[in-house]
Design brief:
Length: 120
């Protein structure tokens, strides 16, 4: 699924509050995992020397945790459309966050990154 198709789906569906919307959300999440991680990987490779540098950069308040908003900033730089950025940020937060505190610490971030080919 390409970004343009998602855009069209969004326009057709309007609000995501129905079964149709739920199906659509699942489609996005499936698309997200491969495509978004790839985009992030490219972003990280071009902008940062190592994942820790990226983590520290997006941890704006330097408290050692990434929030949903931090992920939105990351996705913005990874050229993810603003239409799906919130949804994707939510998805990333939920899939990276292992202890359920709605925050992603360095350990969790590192573990998530290790699943991609970003490994050094
Ligand atoms: Ca933070
Ligand atoms: Ca966490």
């Amino acid at each position: 699924m390409v970004e343009e198709e998602i855009r069209i789906c969004l326009l057709q569906n309007g609000r995501i509050n129905s079964i149709q919307g739920l199906k659509f959300k699942i489609q996005i999440l499936a698309w997200t995992k491969e495509k978004i991680l790839k985009n992030i990987e490219i972003l990280m490779r071009s902008k940062f020397k190592e994942p820790k540098e990226a983590f520290d950069f997006y941890d704006e308040d330097k408290d050692g945790f990434l929030t949903k908003n931090d992920f939105k900033n990351l996705l913005k730089e990874a050229n993810v459309s603003i239409l799906i950025r919130g949804l994707v940020a939510e998805f990333m937060l939920q899939s990276f966050d292992k202890n359920g505190d709605e925050l992603v610490d360095w350990q969790e971030f590192q573990a998530a990154i290790a699943e991609t080919s970003l490994r050094k």
